[in-house]
Amino acid sequence: MSLAGKSAVVTGSTSGIGLGIARALAGAGADIMLNGFGEPSAIDKLRSEMAREFGVRIGFCDANVARANDISRLIDATIKEFGRVDILVNNAGIQYTASIEKFPVDRWDAIIAINLSSNFHAIRAALPKMREHNWGRIINIASTHGLVASTDKAAYVAAKHGVIGLTKVVALETATSGITCNAICPGWVLTPLVEEQIKGRAACEKISVDTAKAELLSEKQPSHEFATPAQIGALTAFLCSEEAAQIRGAALPVDGGWTAQ
Ligand code: NAD
């Protein structure tokens, strides 16, 4: 498969799953607009290393996807740098855990803005550009928590269920075009977002980080293994291929069997 000549925006791609996706798309030949937080020097280094490794152009935009105006700036920056936006991966996301009575209102608002509304704003801005070429791929990184719930994750579960609903609507509205929209639903992937939850669990239960990791997996993920950013990246790249042109409006789990239970 070759994505040579295509350009991709991946939100939240300075770490974790987003970086795995950016690397997979760059590996298939796409130019990449990175986005996310991080030290400017570390991001510069990442850009030059990826450009050298994959022989593609790697841009960066520091848009905060909690803000609609910043998301317009991200899509504009991609058009300015690469002349087009063919692939949009809505990946940036945050987590906060607390029971609903104790859930801080500002954390609810932030999670809905970053994990759900950002997908709407980015799709709204990018879709007209994809329609110009009658080709596009929109991939929203949802979660198993878009399909099933867990305690203490009211905002995250609500946002991720919303992402899957949004994915289906966009898939229907683009169904007769060369543009597809799908969601990927990872189970546990060992990234900074999950490492925070593991550390929290270890501290709360006064157990080692390794025990907390094993407990986390055995509780939800029948394979007892983490999925990897590279695996999520490979599926994203496949969804960008011509072979995947009739996969539309799907929510695809990569979860070691979590949602088969
Ligand atoms: P991560 O914390 O490793 O990476 C998050 C990325 O998003 C970083 O690049 C960060 O800088 C960026 N980001 C955060 N807030 C942002 C903002 N306001 N504007 C722009 N960028 C922002 O997390 P991750 O585990 O790689 O998660 C990526 C996505 O995958 C999220 O949507 C998450 O909900 C989803 N997901 C993760 C897991 C998992 O187990 N790690 C499981 C299911 C779904």
Task: Note down, in words, how this protein is organized.
It is a single chain. With 261 residues, this protein is α/β, with parallel strands linked by helices. It folds into two domains: 7-187 and 228-260, NAD(P)-binding Rossmann-like Domain (Rossmann fold); 190-226. It contains eight helices and seven strands, in the order βαβαβαβαβαβαααβ. The longest helix is centred in the middle third of the chain and has 29 residues, at 105-133. The radius of gyration is 18 Å and the shape is globular. The relative contact order is 0.15. The mean pLDDT is 97. Bound molecules: nicotinamide-adenine-dinucleotide (NAD). Nicotinamide-adenine-dinucleotide (NAD) is lined by residues 11-18, 35-37, 64-66, 91-94, 114-115, 141, 143, 186, 188-189, 191-194.
Q: So what's the CATH class of the largest domain?
A: Alpha Beta
Query: Which structural category fits the helices and strands?
Result: alpha/beta
**Order of the strands making up the biggest sheet:** 3-2-1-4-5-6-7
What integer value in Å does the Rg equal? 18 Å
Strand content of the residues, in percent? 5-15%
Q: Topology of this protein?
A:
Layout: E1 7-10, H1 16-27, E2 31-35, H2 40-54, E3 58-61, H3 68-82, E4 87-90, H4 105-133, E5 136-141, H5 154-173, E6 179-186, H6 192-205, H7 209-220, H8 229-239, E7 251-254
Parallel strand pairs: 1-2, 1-4, 2-3, 4-5, 5-6, 6-7
The structure holds nicotinamide-adenine-dinucleotide (NAD).
